[in-house]
Amino acid sequence: MDNQHCRFCGQKLEHTFADLGFSPLSNEYLSAEALDQGQTYYPLKVQVCGGCFLVQAALYQRPEQIFGEYQYFSSYSQSWLQHCKAYVDMIVPRLGLDGGSRVLEIACNDGYLLQYFQPYGIPVKGIEPAENVAKAARAKGIEVQCCFFGTDTARDIAAADGRYDLVIGNNVLAHVPDINSFVEGLALVLSPEGTITMEFPHLLRLIEHSQFDTIYHEHFHYLSLTTVRRIFQAHGLEIYDVEELETHGGSLRVYAGHQAHVQAGPSAAALLEREERFGLTNIRTYGDFTLQMRKIKLDALRLFTELKQQGARIAAYGAAAKGNTFLNYCGIKHDVIDFVVDSNPHKQGFYLPGSLIPIVGPEVLRERRPDYLLILPWNLTDEIVRSAAYAAEWGCKFIVCIPEVRVFELSQ
To answer: Which of 92, 274, 372, 399 is the most exposed place for a label (fewest CB within 10 A)?
Structure first.
């Protein structure tokens, strides 16, 4: 695929938003047997289109290579499950869904969300490209079609199933390289008066809070409402409502329908105006992000250097993709971080890509009693602090590096 032109409007890309050097794929965890085989490093560079302001990463790996065997299972975050149940309990009465309605989720993962429609007796179907993850969803009694979603797939689904009253996509819009095909597919599977809801991290919050670690190879796009609205409109869809969420460090949930049946409401207009005031339609806004990244990197390296010189034992919590971006950009490896704790058994026993830090179960934290615990998925800080609060028993302090480097301890 051409990395020199915008994937939406085709304009030549001439402006760099962030350059994090070279990094392995953020979800390419290594087994013990593979440690001596090496890893492939790819440029992790993000550019912004001067025409439509779509922020996009260069594509060096096909989606089939990234998502064919996926190690991210959504159901291991309790706060995320609570978020999804609240969404279902809200959307069912809002749209008047019942047993005669039909719901489709793109990238349904392990059934983390669709399971909450089951008590309502609403028929659901999921699309999921990773077979190992789809298997977990099917075990919950959810129908799953294992494939990538786009125009061709959407035509096949519409022909076989008919159209759907609600089409859901949580944190998938940023993961599709051919965003035009994906959004056109949404229009093809949506019933005439149906609703699409999409959740994605908000570019404004990414810039505002220096969230450079949310940049990794499988995130092909970084999205504002301004740009998403343009893409949807190009395919006959209109965003009629938008909500700001706290998930993933600040996300948007957009509600869209066919242009013939919906009109943009005041919430969308207000956020579009705020994005313009922030500068998301001014190319100069994107130029200073590298300075924000560099400051956090230098502050983190200064802290970890001082702690290691003092003989401190440092562990991490959460083997998340964003943590891998942070560690590889900063050059922090297993000689600084002794181990990383993760509750997902599919990751335990493996090693983080690039840094080669071993992934262990939560029980190891109590056994080895580190002096400091670096929280890598900072968006789950509250959940992780609750889970690891017992570390305060031996005086362990917590470290968070986004949006700024800080050390804190729990009061006894």
So the answer is: 274
The Cα 257–Cα 239 span in angstroms is 7
**Residue listed under structure tokens 């005086």:** 395
Question: Within its chain, how far is the Cα of 387 from the centroid?
Answer: 22
* Residue 192, number of CB atoms within 10 A of its CB: 9
Position 402, amino acid: I
Candidates 78, 90, 63, 251; CA nearest to 171 is: 251
What does the alpha-carbon distance between residue 72 and residue 59 come to, in Å, rounded to a whole number? 21
Is the pLDDT score of 68 beyond 90? Answer: no
Per-residue burial over 380-396, b = 16 or more CB atoms within 10 Å of its CB, e = otherwise:
bbebbbebbeebeeeeb
Angstrom distance (rounded) from CA 42 to CA 402: 24
Bond into 403 cis (ω within 30): yes
How far apart, in Å, are the Cα atoms of 305 and each of 65, 229, 308, 339, 362? 36, 45, 5, 17, 26
**Separation of first and last alpha carbons in the chain:** 55
What does the pLDDT look like over 297-316, one tens digit per residue?
999 999 999 999 999 999 99
Q: Is the pLDDT confidence value at 70 over 70?
A: no
Helix residue ranges per DSSP H, 10-115: 63-67, 78-95
CB-based contacts of 213, cutoff 8 Å, min separation 6: 322, 323, 325, 326, 329, 402
Distance CA 311, CA 317 (A): 20
Question: Which of 260, 216, 262 lies closest to 242, judged by CA?
Answer: 262
pLDDT at 85 > cutoff 70: yes
What is the sign, positive or negative, of the torsion defined by CA atoms of 145, 146, 151, 155?
negative
Helix, strand, coil in percent for the chain, rounding step 5: 40, 25, 40
User: What is the Cα–Cα distance from 226 to 48, expressed in whole angstroms?
Assistant: 13
Contact 293, 22 (CB under 8 A): no
Of residues 346 and 154, more confidently modeled: 154
What is the greatest pairwise CA distance in the chain?
A: 66
What is the residue whose two structure tokens read 């031996």?
394
The band of 291, judged by pLDDT with boundaries at 50, 70 and 90, is: very high
